[in-house]
Amino acid sequence: MEILKSRIKPGRTLLYIFSYSFVIIWLIPMLWMVITAIKPDGSPVTILTELIKPPFTMDNYQYVSENASIWRWTWNSVYIAVVTTALTLLLTSMAAYVLSTIPFKGNKLVFGIIIAGLMVPTEATIIPLFLMMVDSGLVNSYSSIIFPSVAAPLGVLILKQFYDSIPKELVEAAEMDGANKLRIWWSIFLPLSRSSMAALGIFTFISSWNNFLWPFLAISDEKMMTLPIGIPLFQSGYAAELTIPMAANMLASLPALIVFILFQKHIIKGIAMTGIK
């Protein structure tokens, strides 16, 4: 009994209490959304006793599927997020590899310019980007959303820090075996940075999935809208009703939740390895 008491430290107990308290606080609105989404249309959902009282129905999901372009918006969001993530990982890893392993005049200057991009707020680039897309004829297209998102200075910073820690002996051994720069990047640097790239990929995916401001300006065709734009448009017709909008929100949040649940270990490991605070 004394051994058990010695293992249970008061500080750790308080930490667990605070941690689980925050988890419960975070889950409450999620549970409210889940239950509200299956309540009949017009049911009172702001009173707890009425919220948990039957009946429950799945008709709201059927209504949303039939009256909103939810699946089209979902496809648009998935396609844009996947392509943006793939291109971001490709470009940032290649840029970080060049800056980390290939010495050239102005290397530090180029890296400094890239990192300076972190200090430029997104809102400051909206007007120039929009004018560029109009002049290029890319408005109301996937490209207008994808191309501005693949420039990721943070990704270059994260991967360069990791690549700098890879022993130079590995590169030298590969060069002695006749491997060229592209082969070394593909066979050594990419496999070793899987955790960091997985974390970066998930952050990029979720950021692209939740992106609202730029798609809102670049897309006006309803068929090309993503979920963050389409869902508010659909909800605007249900200002006083909550059950149907919550059903739409549930359908919209499922893909992002699934991605996070499946890859949460990579997120934690990637954060630990890359030193993100």
UniProtKB/TrEMBL annotation:
<dbReference type="InterPro" id="IPR000515">
    <property type="entry name" value="MetI-like"/>
</dbReference>
<feature type="transmembrane region" description="Helical">
    <location>
        <begin position="242"/>
        <end position="263"/>
    </location>
</feature>
<feature type="transmembrane region" description="Helical">
    <location>
        <begin position="145"/>
        <end position="163"/>
    </location>
</feature>
<protein>
    <submittedName>
        <fullName>Multiple sugar transport system permease protein</fullName>
    </submittedName>
</protein>
<feature type="domain" description="ABC transmembrane type-1">
    <location>
        <begin position="74"/>
        <end position="263"/>
    </location>
</feature>
<feature type="transmembrane region" description="Helical">
    <location>
        <begin position="111"/>
        <end position="133"/>
    </location>
</feature>
<keyword id="KW-0472">Membrane</keyword>
<feature type="transmembrane region" description="Helical">
    <location>
        <begin position="78"/>
        <end position="99"/>
    </location>
</feature>
<dbReference type="InterPro" id="IPR035906">
    <property type="entry name" value="MetI-like_sf"/>
</dbReference>
<keyword id="KW-0812">Transmembrane</keyword>
<feature type="transmembrane region" description="Helical">
    <location>
        <begin position="14"/>
        <end position="35"/>
    </location>
</feature>
<feature type="transmembrane region" description="Helical">
    <location>
        <begin position="184"/>
        <end position="206"/>
    </location>
</feature>
<keyword id="KW-1133">Transmembrane helix</keyword>
<keyword id="KW-1003">Cell membrane</keyword>
<dbReference type="Pfam" id="PF00528">
    <property type="entry name" value="BPD_transp_1"/>
</dbReference>
<dbReference type="GO" id="GO:0005886">
    <property type="term" value="C:plasma membrane"/>
</dbReference>
<dbReference type="GO" id="GO:0055085">
    <property type="term" value="P:transmembrane transport"/>
</dbReference>
<keyword id="KW-0813">Transport</keyword>
<keyword id="KW-0762">Sugar transport</keyword>
<comment type="similarity">
    <text>Belongs to the binding-protein-dependent transport system permease family.</text>
</comment>
